[in-house]
C-alpha cells in the first residue's frame, strides 16, 4: 500500500527476452518504464525537476510554468504539476498523437500545439519566447541537471542492483539524453567497463522520442564522453521491432523503445557473452491513433 502516487515512480521491473534474443550466451533485459504511474521513463525526471525546483523556491504555486515536449515528458509534468497544484503550459508539435494531448489535458495542463513543419525545435522556440517576454518559468528538460540526476539516483542503481552488478551493456534512445547521461554516470562509477550505447535515428528517419539534434539545439546536459558508442536505427526497424515486442514478447511499447530494442538485439549478436539492459521508455497505448500498430 502506498500513501502517495509519487512514491510509485521508479523501481520498474526488468523483463528478460524469451524469444527475440537468440544468443544463448547473452542475456537481454528490457526495463519496463511504462510501469511508472504516468506511463513512461519521464516520470523520474519530471518529478525530480518539479520537486527540487519547488523545494528550492525556484518557483511557487503562483508562477506559470511552461515546457516544450514531444509527449512523455509533458504527460509526466502534467501529472506531477497537478499533484503539486501548479499551473503548467505544455507545447507540442501539432502532429503529436491525440492520446498524448488528451492525457495532458486530463491532468489539467494547458496544451499549445505548434506547427509540425518546425517540429520540436519550433515548440522549444515558442516556450523560450514565453519565458523571455511573458515571465513564464521553464522546466528546461534539455538543460536542467535535475533531469539526468533523477536517473543517477534511481535508474542506474536499480539496474545495477537488479542485474547483481552483471550488466555489461546499457542501451537507451537519446532524446533529451537525461536517461542515458544519469544512468551512464552511475554505472560507470560502479564499473568503468560497462558499455553505454546511445540510439539515434538514421538520417531523415522520424522516430518520436529519438533525435539527432542540430548543433544549436543539442541538449546542454549531454556529455559525449559518457556514451561509448552511438548506433543508428531507421524508422522501419523501429516500427517493426515495436510490433515484434508486442506480438512475441508481450511488451507493448512505442517506436523509440522499438529502436532501442533493435540496437540491443543487434548487440546481442555481436558479442560472445554479456548482459544487456535496454530501456522500454513507455507504453504502446499512447500510439494507437498513429499507424504504428496498423
UniProtKB/TrEMBL annotation:
N6-(pyridoxal phosphate)lysine: modified positions: 42
Keyword hit for Amino-acid biosynthesis: yes
BP term (GO), one: cysteine biosynthetic process from serine
Name listed for the protein in its UniProt record: Cysteine synthase
Family the UniProt entry places it in: Belongs to the cysteine synthase/cystathionine beta-synthase family.
Gene: cysM
Record PANTHER family: CYSTATHIONINE BETA-SYNTHASE (PTHR10314)
Organism taxonomic ancestry: Bacteria, Pseudomonadati, Bacteroidota, Flavobacteriia, Flavobacteriales
Protein source organism: Maribacter litoralis
Annotated residues for binding of pyridoxal 5'-phosphate: 72, 175-179, 256
